[in-house]
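User: Please fill in residues for this 305-position structure.
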């Protein structure tokens, strides 16, 4: 994932400052959305099993316990390696799409360089899909990779593209997706609607990162929120259903409160502490009259009937 100029990764997620070198003040939109539970246990398990089953060293390792343990440890991290590769690929695709927008806006761009990087990683088909999307939808870019801020709720984020399409102002988020068994690009996750509506509800947008200059958000009345899934075979464009936007906004605000409370608890330090059992009342020896309290370690002893 790309790292905007005002954002930094922290133990509590990606955080934004108001200007370069400034104090980190609010979480990113994706960090807030990340507070929602997302069970990936099945995918992690499948990735590990597949990595182990297809490892060419497996037959020989079955006869060597140390090699077998090494293969198991390597397979256990298969999902993380896949995630990291997908994130790096997504960065390259997003960079290419940004360069297309800059070129269309008549600004300095590096389209050739961005495509060359995709080709170097055997990902040129993603660039082809992005090109086809631009030809079909003919967007007129208004802003690319624009950072926005909401002080009321407390968050910031960077939107991929604001463009006029068919006479309507659209907020657009790119998602780099794989293809299914029939060769069709996979659809974006519905959480992209929450992400887009948070961008719509921004209050300010960045003018100059160095000086920390901001201006009122111009596109809070955008008529369409769109996600574009860019794959190797095609680009799929979907629209956020307008009637569902209020529910997604309320959900985002609730997640922002969850993030704030979690950050508060993390900053407070330890949440549990040991407590000793009370002494027997009136006993000079302090013998225990009750069972051990939770959090207090005791030696193991025989069971009492």
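Assistant: Residues filled in for all 305 positions:
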């Amino acid at each position: 994932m790309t790292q905007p100029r005002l954002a930094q990764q922290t133990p509590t997620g990606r955080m934004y400052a108001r200007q370069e070198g400034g104090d980190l003040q609010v979480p990113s939109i994706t960090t807030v959305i990340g507070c929602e539970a997302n069970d990936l246990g099945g995918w992690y398990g499948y990735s590990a099993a597949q990595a182990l089953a297809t490892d060419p060293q497996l037959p020989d390792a079955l006869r060597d316990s140390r090699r077998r343990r090494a293969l198991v440890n390597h397979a256990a991290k298969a999902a993380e390696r896949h995630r990291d590769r997908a994130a790096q690929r997504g960065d390259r695709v997003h960079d290419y799409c940004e360069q297309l927008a800059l070129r269309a806006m008549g600004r300095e761009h590096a389209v050739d360089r961005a495509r060359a990087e995709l080709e170097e990683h055997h990902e040129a088909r993603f660039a082809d899909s992005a090109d086809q999307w631009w030809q079909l939808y003919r967007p007129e870019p208004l802003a690319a990779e624009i950072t926005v801020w909401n002080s009321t709720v407390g968050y910031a984020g960077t939107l991929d593209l604001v463009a006029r399409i068919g006479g309507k102002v659209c907020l657009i988020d790119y998602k780099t997706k794989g293809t299914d068994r029939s060769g069709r690009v996979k659809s974006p996750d519905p959480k992209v609607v929450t992400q887009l509506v948070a961008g719509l509800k921004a209050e300010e947008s960045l003018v100059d990162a160095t000086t920390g200059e901001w201006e009122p958000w111009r596109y809070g009345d955008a008529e369409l929120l769109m996600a574009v899934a860019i794959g190797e075979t095609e680009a799929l464009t979907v629209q956020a259903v307008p009637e569902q936007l209020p529910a997604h906004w309320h959900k985002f605000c609730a997640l922002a409160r969850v993030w704030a409370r979690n950050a508060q608890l993390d900053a407070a330090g330890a949440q549990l502490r040991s407590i000793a059992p009370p002494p027997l009342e009136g006993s000079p020896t302090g013998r225990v009259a009750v069972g051990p309290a939770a959090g207090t370690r005791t030696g193991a002893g025989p069971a009492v009937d």
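For context: The chain has a mean pLDDT of 86.
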